[in-house]
Amino acid sequence: MSENAQLEYTLLQEETLSMYLYDRNGKLITSFIENKTSQAGSYKQKIIIPSFLSSGNYDILIITKNDRLLIPIYYQHQ
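The chain above was modelled as a monomer; its predicted structure follows.
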């Protein structure tokens, strides 16, 4: 993943969504979205990786009222 990426997702119903970036030790690095309510539909979320991060494995955590999705990523510092 580069410093600027885009995550595409689809909501099947109205959802309140949060999206976070964590390191592999479970430390919160940044939040991309917090408690944003969106209607059903397709979305694109810009993902900007903080410039202070070193290359390595990280996780994007997406949380809705009824579900959690963990997306492992590898970030290569430019």
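The longest strand covers residues 28-38.
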